[in-house]
Amino acid sequence: MSIYEMEVTTNRGERRQLSEYKGKVLLVVNTATKCGFAPQFKGLQRLYETYGDQGFVVLGFPSNQFANQEPGDDAQIAEACELNHGVSFPLHAKIDVKGPDADPLFVYLTREAPGFLGSRNIKWNFTKFLIDRRGRVVKRFAPTVTPEKIESRVRALL
Fold first, then answer.
1. For residue 60, what are the domain limits?
2. What residues does the Thioredoxin domain cover (predicted)?
């Protein structure tokens, strides 16, 4: 299986194939607007604006699985992201990123890039997965790793 075989739902309810992003460098992030790491939205947006014309895309996937830090519906989440953080990168429908109902994308990502001590679980909001232009998951970043600390890795893949 490849990431390009995955289908996701946008925050407007439209189904999309990740194959639309073939040839681009992707940063897939599980997000939550009420999380203490929410200030990272600004850094993610800055990366998206800085490197977007070079083939870089941030894909945000809201989840409410961690301390109920994403309680809103998809429209409320999109509004909060835009108004509070200036987000214009693609946001998707709220999903589960762990457990029995985990979205297939996150099952795939955690299998390809396990976390600390080989864990396949997402531990918290703002876990990030960097994917190269060939669709390979090259690195998983913990929630505490800021977008600024990832920038050199993004540049190297571009």
1. 3-157
2. 1-158
